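Worked example

This section walks through a single chain of length 17. The input is the sequence exactly as stored; nothing has been trimmed or padded.
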Amino acid sequence: MILSIYMKVFTFMFGCA
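Given that input, the structure is written out below as tokens.
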């Protein structure tokens, strides 16, 4: 699912930030 990838990227960005 695209939403799943988007959520994963968002979480990664948030976690990296």
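What to look for: The two ends are 25 Å apart (CA to CA).
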